[in-house]
Design a protein that fits this description.
Two copies of one chain form a homodimer. By secondary structure, chain A is mainly alpha-helical. Chain A is built from nine helices and no strands. Chain A has helices at 8-25, 32-38, 43-49, 53-82, 86-107, 112-117, 124-151, 160-180, 185-202. In chain A, helix 1 packs across helix 2 and helix 5 packs antiparallel against helix 9 (185-202). The termini of chain A are far apart. Chains A and B meet through helix 6, helix 7, helix 8 and helix 9 of A and helix 6, helix 7, helix 8 and helix 9 of B. Chain A binds a DNA duplex (30 and 30 nucleotides) through helix 3.
Amino acid sequence: MNVPRDGTPTRDRILDAAQRIVLERGFAATSVDAVLAAAPATKGAFFHHFPSKNDLGRALLERYAAADERLLDDFMAAAEAESDDPAEQLVAFVRRFEQAADELAPTQPGCLFVSFIYESQLAGNENDLIATSIRHWRTRLLEKLEAAAELHPPAIAVDLRSLADQVFTTFEGGFILARAMHDPSHLRAQLAHLRHYLELLFGL
Amino acid sequence: MNVPRDGTPTRDRILDAAQRIVLERGFAATSVDAVLAAAPATKGAFFHHFPSKNDLGRALLERYAAADERLLDDFMAAAEAESDDPAEQLVAFVRRFEQAADELAPTQPGCLFVSFIYESQLAGNENDLIATSIRHWRTRLLEKLEAAAELHPPAIAVDLRSLADQVFTTFEGGFILARAMHDPSHLRAQLAHLRHYLELLFGL
DNA sequence: GGGGAAACAGACTGGATGGTCTGTTATATC
DNA sequence: GATATAACAGACCATCCAGTCTGTTTCCCC
């Protein structure tokens, strides 16, 4: 078996350029030629790495979901290092995203998931990739919420399952708000309210 | 001046069909031909009513924003009829959206605003239409929030301005969550948390 | 150092798509 | 009932765009 030169740098360059353009204009409005011009790369390179444009979309989503999962793990680990109280961990977790929001928002004008969710043209397989990602967040946060509710009986009865989803909701909604108003700082402010809600619920 | 037959029914049919398809696939992925097939209408009719596809987008946005504003006014008026307490009015306001969510979500799989926000290809003019709409909600809700905070000192210090935006955030985030998980009921659940947050803040 | 396979390069194509253009029909005014 | 004009109808066009195809280069293995 012969192993010629490594193609991953080219592949990554294409993915990076594609992600930037997709986040800005959406997937359908992103032409392969535009990606190639931005990468830069050629037609031959593109269709060597991705059989079709849809495969590029799938690859983008997979890479994004993986990075997303890593972020969740990292921030949760950092939050767990700050305190032993699961409620305080949750608050620290959200606070970390608030801090990250200011740096993240200007460079990343949105969430790649939304770019695909609002374009149902991709088959169910990759949409399930998003659903799996969301469920992962939910599971991870739900166990913390349950532990927190155990220690700190909530001020009012709430459904913890959908509360876990509230993190995703606030993130996506905040992104949209920030983008619609052309002001990245909105994301942080919306996340702060989620934190306040948790603080009130668990009496912190 | 001669006034031939009325064109508004055709125009509306085109707008209705276009809105359905745009909400499902996004604006860029919506071809004029697909709209014409769904309306149904012909090329001649389309380009008689809309000089270009982008003009259709603008018209869609304008119509949507107007309906949005009407909804805000109606629900706010209904909430104001329920109670004299601005805090309770706000809670009633959100509760109304929870009720509406179940009926709205299945027929309308998303918010038209997002379809355009995540596709920056349209010029700044129509994006400002969205921003104006958001600012309208913010202004309207902010005055209620300030009145509520006067009567019921908030449990913790929060920024009322961004709290007003939280309604928009929760709505958009909830829509995305519902769509990503293929379960419209999520929207209602997310709105419920927003209501709980308000209840906790104002001690209701 | 020759052979082979992956990694490109780039001209080319067929279909989709936004938009045009030349009619034709309906209706209110005179 | 002649006419003017908005409201359509639908063939047609120019462009763009995803995907193909035929090379050429690079690099490892023997």
